[in-house]
Amino acid sequence: MEDRQENSRVRESRALIWDVARKSGVSISTVSRVLNGRPDVSVATRDKVLAHVRDLGYNSHRHTHTIVRAPLQRVGVSIPNEEHFMGMLHGITDALNKQKAQLSFCSRSSCGPERTLLERLQADGADAALLVLPKESDEELLELCHAGFPFVVIDPRTPLSDDIPTVTAANIGGARAATKHLLSLGHRRIGLLVGDARWCMSIDRLAGYQAVMFATGLPHDPALIRESDFTLEGGYQAAMELLSLPERPTAIFAFSDDMAVGVLHAALELGLSVPRDLSVVGFDDARFASFVTPALTTVHQPRYELGYTGVDVLFRNRAEARLDAIHTSLSTRLVVRHSTGPCPESF
User: Fold this and answer.
1) In a 10 Å sphere around its CB, with 0-12 CB exposed, 13-18 middle and 19+ buried, how is residue 156 labelled?
2) pTM score, two decimals?
């Protein structure tokens, strides 16, 4: 009975701060800054927020103490492909074990697509969640905030509200490193397989590539860009198109290792030697990257650390009663193997 009453008070307190934000016409993080006495809020905004706080009877100290007294016990994980994200799951599991919390999986297939995100997460008793590449819209995720349900998004598909905490890899930096590597080898016609162009990771990786090309004064040829679906088959089809151009690229930078392997298959089918005739770079550093032939040069994503940090952010926000969204970006690094080499002098 006490647990149910405690959980009810938590939801009530979180809903109250959402109501304050909505009535004041500001973000949840702005309300939090006002309640915490932060100086980076205008006088007019502060007065407006505090007026609604008084009207709604909100007590920031009660809210803070309630959060501290209600530890998270069962964290739901929504993840698109458990096998592909095994390294991330290891990080999540290790971090949850440290927090003495349980893990439960939640997916559309197991809980039914007609149910709301909150219903699916709570179906197995979860009181918090890690959402990996969630398909839900920004509005659906904000509904979790409205309901007072703690969560962190790892690798958002599309841009999200500043009020939603996220943990991502440094995609721009990784793409910059890959592009600089190919340029250092003499490549100038670099084909790109961008995956889904609407995804944040594709947007950031394309931005990293474009930044390096712009900084070096090299032309950016849109004809060398293909959108695919991050799969081996998609990479193969897109590579066949690029390698069939009258002036084919001398290197291809694929925004996933799966697509990069598809490029290797296309090159083999066309009689091209990698890296003598074509250099190939991937992104992810999947487990198979060092076992394909030739071993794949790729950008290492810290999958384990993404999972571990996601749990850390979730519990740190909860323990410190902070409502300011935390956006964490973890560094990537280029791993040079055997699929890249000097640009061929002629075709």
Assistant:
1) buried
2) 0.77
Chain segment 95-133, per-residue pLDDT in tens: 999 999 988 887 655 455 567 788 888 777 788 999 999
CB atoms within 10 A of CB 226: 21
* Beta carbons within 10 angstroms of residue 220's beta carbon: 12
Task: Report the candidate in 285, 241, 284 with the shortest Cα–Cα distance to residue 263.
Answer: 241
Residue ranges of domains in the chain, CATH in brackets: 2-68 (1.10.260.40), 73-168+304-325 (3.40.50.2300), 171-302 (3.40.50.2300)
Q: Considering only CA atoms, give the Rg of the chain.
A: 23
Tell me how far CA of residue 134 lies from CA of 64, 104, 116, 155, in angstroms. Answer: 29, 16, 13, 8
Residues 6 or more apart from 115 whose CB is under 8 A from it?
Answer: 123
Q: ω into residue 294 within 30 of 0, thus cis?
A: yes
